[in-house]
């Protein structure tokens, strides 16, 4: 059976909470042997709800891995960790800057043990500056980077964005991406390197268009509900059946098709709506026409009509519907995973599909589930290297 594109890559995953585990999970889904490290006293409890002592967070963010327990303050466990790290391609950690040194896993130490190691460290705020040692988590980073500004109903105060893990996942994805680029660089140079990533940097990166708009205009974003700041019409409208329909007319061809679909062709020649910039400037007047038009028919009618004229539209779907939607099921967007603690759970599947080296999503390990297996593998690898008096592949890198 074909193996994933990262088959043969081993990852020492010394991460916690979501941001680091999420990135490591993506590497595991691509075929890397991800070894997730937990303290021997860990239980897997954390973000509620908890079933059989294991939290939803631990289950959701640690799939596609093997589990190993190590106490890095124990000389024996630290020695085992160093032996394992000699066989690893990647080291991942998301803790405050000084923690790595205290645990003996700083870059200087690990690069001496394994010169080919790709070393990723994720912090909240970066390796320098007055906030260097301040704890950083998803909500705090969203607040500090201004992400909350402009979120909320039109004319209302700013609101908190309610998807708690957005910046955790975003930073984890950037981390996985950085590791892939560093592995390519190592293939060319034969050398490992350190990668520093912060949630603050990642949170700012995904807001580049909004930040650029402010720097160009010095106008602060304001809450606009579901509306786009840069195009119109581009929002959700309430249909006759009480369901919301999200639609966008972002080109002149789509605008003309939109006007015909809602049976208002006269809008095409209306000077107030001649260009997108005009439509943005007169969005209230435009919505006063569109809202009652959409309210005349149910969403299924509008889907058909907008499809005919090439205008993007879709129902604002509920999660209970998405789980069983044919599009999601046939593309493995949602897949079942069997776990020891929770039984069968449903989760988002691989976000990418490789034709020759397909990825694989598999169950979250129990705490230390693979201790004996992993330590035995490391001991055999070192024994084989000693017998042949040759370095391991990672040592050669």
Task: Provide structural commentary.
The two termini are 28 Å apart. This protein has helices spanning 19-29, 56-61, 75-85, 99-103, 107-113, 138-144, 166-189, 199-205, 208-217, 252-261, 276-281, 283-294, 299-309, 319-322, 326-330, 371-388, 393-396, and strands at residues 10-14, 33-38, 50-51, 54-55, 66-69, 90-93, 118-123, 193-198, 234-238, 244-248, 313-315, 334-339, 343-348. Helix 1 crosses helix 7 and helix 10 (252-261) crosses helix 13 (299-309). The model is unreliable at 392-397 (pLDDT under 50). The chain is of the alpha/beta class. It contains 17 helices and 13 strands. The protein has 2 domains: 10-206 and 325-396, 3-Layer(aba) Sandwich (Rossmann fold), CATH 3.40.50; 234-238 and 244-315, formyl-coa transferase, domain 3, CATH 3.30.1540.10. A 6-stranded parallel sheet has the order 5-2-1-6-7-8, with helices on both faces. A 3-stranded antiparallel sheet has the order 9-10-11, with helices on one face. The protein is elongated. A hairpin with a 3-residue loop joins strand 12 (334-339) and strand 13.
């Amino acid at each position: 059976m074909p193996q994933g594109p990262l088959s043969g890559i081993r990852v020492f995953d010394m991460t916690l909470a979501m941001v680091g585990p999420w990135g490591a999970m993506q590497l595991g889904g691509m075929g890397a042997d991800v070894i997730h490290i937990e303290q021997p006293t860990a239980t897997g409890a954390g973000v509620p709800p908890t079933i059989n002592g294991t939290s939803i967070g631990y289950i959701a963010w640690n799939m596609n891995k093997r589990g190993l327990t190590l106490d890095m303050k124990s000389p024996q466990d630290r020695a085992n960790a160093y032996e394992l790290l000699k066989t690893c391609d990647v080291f991942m950690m998301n803790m405050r800057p000084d923690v790595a040194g205290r645990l003996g896993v700083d870059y200087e130490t690990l690069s001496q043990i394994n010169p080919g190691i790709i070393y990723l460290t994720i912090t909240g705020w970066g390796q320098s500056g007055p906030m260097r040692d301040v704890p950083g988590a998803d909500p705090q980073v969203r607040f500090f980077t201004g992400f909350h500004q402009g979120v909320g109903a039109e004319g209302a105060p700013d609101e908190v964005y309610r998807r708690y893990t957005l910046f955790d996942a975003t930073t984890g994805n950037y981390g996985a991406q950085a590791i892939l680029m560093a592995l390519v660089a190592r293939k060319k140079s034969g050398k490992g390197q350190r990668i520093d990533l912060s949630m603050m940097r990642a949170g700012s990166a995904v807001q580049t268009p909004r930040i650029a708009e402010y720097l160009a205009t010095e106008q602060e974003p304001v809450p606009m509900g579901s509306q786009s700041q840069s195009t119109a019409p581009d929002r959700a409208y309430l249909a006759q059946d009480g369901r919301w329909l999200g639609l966008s007319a972002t080109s002149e061809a789509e605008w003309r098709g939109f006007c015909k679909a809602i049976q208002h062709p006269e809008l095409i020649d209306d000077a107030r709506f001649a260009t997108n910039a005009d439509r943005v400037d007169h969005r209230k007047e435009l919505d006063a026409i569109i809202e009652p038009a959409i309210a005349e028919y149910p969403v299924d009618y509008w889907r058909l009509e907008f499809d005919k004229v090439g205008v993007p539209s879709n129902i604002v779907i509920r999660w209970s519907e998405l789980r069983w939607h044919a599009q999601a099921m046939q593309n493995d967007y949602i897949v079942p995973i069997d776990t020891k603690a929770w039984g069968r759970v449903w989760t988002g599947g691989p976000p990418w599909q490789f034709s020759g080296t397909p990825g694989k999503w598999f169950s979250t390990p129990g705490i230390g589930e693979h201790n004996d297996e992993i330590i035995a593998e490391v001991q055999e690898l070192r024994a084989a290297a000693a017998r042949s008096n040759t370095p391991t592949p990672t040592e050669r890198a």
